[in-house]
Design goal:
Layout lengths: L14 H4 L7 E7 L2 E7 L6 H13 L3 H15 L1
Antiparallel strand pairs: 1-2
């Protein structure tokens, strides 16, 4: 399949390729051995991931004390 670069450095991805990708709006672009590589990335609003983690902790019923105990346990294993 061909894709043409425009005078504004824009490329339209072929529909057949886009259909095989997860729904994504952003790509990390790199050059590897002379080939352009596009990797889908998920861009999130700052703090959204932390909100999701906190919500999961609440849903699991974990308390601050339980988290502190788990951290203490993990640190004790390191020594």
């Amino acid at each position: 399949m061909l894709a043409k670069i425009t005078s504004k450095n824009q490329i339209t991805l072929p529909k057949a390729i886009v259909k095989q990708l997860p729904e994504v709006g952003y790509f990390e672009v790199s050059l590897r051995k002379g080939e352009v590589v596009l990797r889908p990335v998920e861009v999130t609003v700052p703090g959204e991931r932390l909100k999701a983690v906190r919500a999961k902790i609440r849903a699991l019923g974990l308390t601050e004390k339980a988290v502190e105990q788990a951290i203490r346990w993990a640190r004790d294993r390191e020594t």
